[in-house]
Design a protein that fits this description.
By secondary structure, this protein is α+β, with helices and mostly antiparallel strands. The protein contains nine helices and 16 strands. The strands form four sheets. A six-stranded mixed β-sheet has the order 3-4-2-1-14-13. It has a six-stranded mixed β-sheet with strand order 5-6-7-8-12-9, with no helix packed on it. α3 packs parallel to α4 and α8 packs antiparallel against α9. The longest helix has 39 residues. The two termini are 50 Å apart.
Length: 394
């Protein structure tokens, strides 16, 4: 039986994680994160080392429009911290556990309609001791007794070094609450002196492993950490890749009809004969407004994440130029393929093809640069209207 539309809009809950080592105020890295979310259909994305502080407003960050961002910043510092991007279609509540343990960086959510509680955490060796983190785990797990729990984050304890005292302390704690560590691959490769180290420090602890469909280390790498992902057999609505937006349809034909109506299609004789300037102004405004609503009806569009609602003239020219150069490149590429040439780089057709490719690539890179500048300027203008600080936006 073919899946229904409703079935296609739901899938298994998918949770991802990565230590991104800062960069959330950088459009390049946030674009990477958005692509990772879309490529793996993530519903929740746990982030470590946001490196944010209270001078950086969440609304200045270029996160996907279909996600909320919860975050905890490290006090009096621009390092560390953790966060959680959550699909807006998920119903959840934030959980708080009262404790007096210092230097804990963790966020909790409970999915409504389920018994599932999810924690995004970050334990830094220089900030939070293993003993403090384990004490925090005890407090949380006692209060969540009998409930399904998923801990996901960077614990900074190598799960392959089973002889270390830190590993043994953590392992005893996990076993006392029937928690298992499910990540089996290398999540970080780093150079220490002249040696390269391979460790598994990005982890998933859970007491409901029987409901896991899979848990894997992804090919995507942000900084020197691999992203990880786990899929749980619990149906949730998919995060939309596009945001539905209602706009006025300003197509060329509508503009043409609108201008024709305001020109030859309108009788202004009564307004011209009146001596009441205020009444004439009001009447003319109402006439134009009525015509605008008539000739520019509402239209619903799907807006991509990289959609720019106020493109500059320079960006529009760059987009057109890129399109023309791509068509030229594609045409020359087809000619090379038809000629049977195996890209020898010496014949006339290959030289033209390679030149066209270089021109297109340069124009495309320029378009990307202009697009980021335009997006940044639009964000800054919107934030100024809201009176939000923008000095930290890059």
């Amino acid at each position: 039986m073919a899946p229904t539309t409703e079935d296609q809009n739901y899938h298994n809950l998918t949770i991802g994680h990565c230590n991104i080592q800062g960069g959330l105020i950088n459009l390049g890295k946030t674009t990477q994160l958005t692509e990772l979310i879309n490529n793996h259909n993530l519903d929740i994305f746990s982030l470590n080392e946001l490196n944010l502080n209270d001078t950086i407003h969440t609304s200045t960050l270029n996160i996907p429009s279909s996600f909320n961002l919860l975050r905890i910043d490290r006090p009096n510092s621009s390092r560390g911290g953790c966060g959680m991007m959550i699909n807006k279609k998920l119903s959840y509540t934030e959980l708080q556990f009262s404790h007096d343990i210092p230097n804990i960086e963790a966020l909790w959510v409970k999915l409504k309609g389920s018994n599932l509680n999810i924690c995004s955490f970050y334990r830094s060796n220089k900030y939070c001791t293993v003993e403090n983190f384990i004490d925090y785990m005890h407090i949380c797990m006692r209060q969540l007794s009998g409930k399904k729990v998923v801990w996901i984050g960077d614990v900074n304890i190598d799960q392959n070094n089973i002889n270390s005292s830190q590993y043994k302390k953590l392992d005893m704690t996990l076993k006392s609450y029937n928690l298992v560590q499910t990540v089996q691959g290398i999540t970080r490769m780093a150079k220490v002196g002249n040696k390269f180290t391979q460790t598994t420090i990005d982890v998933v602890f859970t007491n409901c492993y029987s409901e896991f469909v899979n848990c894997s280390v992804l090919d995507e790498k942000i900084g020197d950490h691999q992203a990880i992902k786990c899929e749980i057999s619990y149906k949730v609505p998919k995060a939309p890749k596009y945001e539905k937006v209602v706009i006025r349809n300003h197509c060329k034909n509508n503009v043409k009809q609108f201008l024709a109506f305001l020109g030859e299609g309108s009788d202004y004789s009564r307004l011209l004969e009146s001596n009441n300037v205020e009444a004439v102004t009001t009447g003319l405004c109402e006439h134009i407004e009525d015509a605008y609503y008539k000739y520019f009806p509402l239209k619903t569009i799907q807006r991509r994440e990289n959609f720019i609602d106020k493109p500059s003239a320079e960006l529009l020219d760059a987009i057109k130029g890129t399109g023309k150069l791509y068509k030229k490149f594609k045409k020359l590429k087809d000619e090379v393929l038809k000629s049977g040439c195996n890209h020898c780089s010496t014949c006339g057709k290959c030289l033209k093809f390679e030149k066209a490719w270089g021109n297109y690539k340069s124009k495309r890179n320029l378009r990307t640069k202009i697009s980021r500048t335009c997006r940044r300027q639009n964000i800054i203008e919107d934030l100024k209207k809201k009176k939000v600080p923008t000095a930290t936006l890059r």
